[in-house]
């Protein structure tokens, strides 16, 4: 308790609000919610008429509170939302160098990422990640191979216009898996009638030679709307001062998206088609015992943009039909989506075109809900949503069985505005059914040991063939809800309270894994007896804003029953259990308690000068466990980010919105780690020094281009993030250091060119 109190005190002293650092553009809110009321639709059309218009880099949190976000009963102002929400604007995304979309938002308070090299990131919100964060894109849940920790989010960063980060259980609106929160990636709003616009962007990073580009063309002619984008990216291996170039950390990416639709007085109908192709390498971290250097296969160059062996290949196809109709003063919405995700792993030098693991996932998403007209300050929303899935094994190696999944959720929400008080809440019922298929395979290796479906070992020498997976059926039911309030105590001071219940059904990997997972270098074993996770979370938020200071404090307490995690297996001599020469991990569960929060303060004593600080802290404890298993796996370290930012006064004719920012990113030592069987180790503290600058260049009063420069890790600090999977690779026998370190010094440049047609 003393540790918690100290952390809270520190948060209140050295914190900073996300709010003031944000560039505000009201057109960033969800275009599908913009038509709920005529007034919001008019705002949407007005702001969208200039999609390339840039706002100042920073605005006060007063203006931020006017940003419209996704609420339980339609769109609402940020200050009226009881649940903790962060908003990332188009300008912020534009100026932040990154290798993927999670990279671009990982600096937000309470948000971190599980990384596998520089190109693969998995979002973590308030210490919870894995399959506890729902990602929404194009209005539907993004469904790829989320069961893998090293599986990233298959979304083109260039296609994302703004981001909403919902912190805490959001199962009420999004169903199972939204226990940690939701990331809502918004596309750019459709343009006003008669407008046609295009833009081109490109960038380069020095450390890994990352080169990216994106071309966009959008328009609205007589209500017929379109938005076309093509993007590409490639990067060779990154480097740091301890490891040199990290072979296998290269990547190639291509993406295409096309929106076609019709805006009419009674609503809209839009069809969005997406294609995403990613080829990331796999970092194995094997070293030369004499030199300690990372091994590079003969014939390969660490600085090559080609495909290193081994590597993954991901294809993601998506089609979404989005419809919205006004029914009187109410609004009916219907979304139908189809996604096809294929993930392959290639690892055989002798047969480079033959993949081992090969998964094909088909998903159909559906969402039907009705937003009632406002009646005496009351708003109501009812609906049903869910998905159908089919997963197929097409490779020669196996990790999870083929399966079918179907779920649905029925929900009802309500909100009420009473003067300065806003109340909201609702209830939801979820049902998920999963059917796993059996797999019998021949076992010719008499010396091999395999694990059957429930985790017990069987010797291949005793059987000519055996079941890799046993067929089983499971159904999971959950009842969730939330209730919250937001109250304006003073014109510049708001308080928020929210209580929410979360639900998550175990996924196929947790239930029935049985094989080597190359991406994590583990032999993973499922557990069909796992129960669904259920949580209760309480949130308290305080926001204050004045002409010279903006501050916020957000605290939470979360209790989770049947928390599912992977535990490293050991024998009676406390030695790792090896299956197929790979350390074995078994999924199990227990109860957990999580406390923490985020705090922030931005001081701007003069108009163009800002001193900002943010602090994030998470304390995650497993209940009723011995000391070595006390803490949850992959708990982010406390983090303090401090920056000084100055916005120069320009003539507005040649240069505009010129800024320079110096940032200190301090990750404190993480002593709270899952120590059982050496699953995790402590991580030392480290501080990174970063610098950012940018400006708009104008010609004849019009924006010619936007230019952004950055230098990250300027001191070339060698460090390991606690959430890096590469931290636990082979030990360097020469230096004694374990694992692979994160990226070293990196400079970047980005240019955005608007094209008026």
How many helical elements?
A: 7
> Hey, roughly how much beta strand do the residues contain?
over 45%
**Sheet having the most strands:** 22 strands, antiparallel, barrel
Helix content: under 10%
CATH topology: Maltoporin, Chain A
How many angstroms separate the termini? Answer: 61 Å
CATH superfamily: TonB-dependent receptor, beta-barrel domain
* Low-confidence parts: 1-62, 444-464
Overall geometric form: globular
Using only C-alpha atoms, the radius of gyration works out to: 25 Å
CATH second-level architecture: Beta Barrel
The overall strand count is 40
Could you report the average pLDDT, rounded to the nearest whole number? Answer: 86
CATH class: Mainly Beta
Total domain units: 1
Q: What structural category arises from helix and sheet content?
A: mainly beta
The oligomerization state is single chain
Please, could you describe this protein's structure?
This protein has 757 residues and is mostly beta strands. The protein has a single domain (13-756), classed as Beta Barrel (Maltoporin, Chain A). Helix content is 6%, strand content 51%. It contains seven helices and 40 strands. The strands form seven sheets. It has a 22-stranded antiparallel β-barrel. The protein has a five-stranded mixed β-sheet with strand order 3-8-9-6-7. A two-stranded antiparallel sheet has the order 1-2. Strand 29 and strand 30 (522-525) form a beta hairpin. The longest helix has 12 residues, at 2-13. The protein is globular. The model is unreliable at 1-62 and 444-464 (pLDDT under 50).
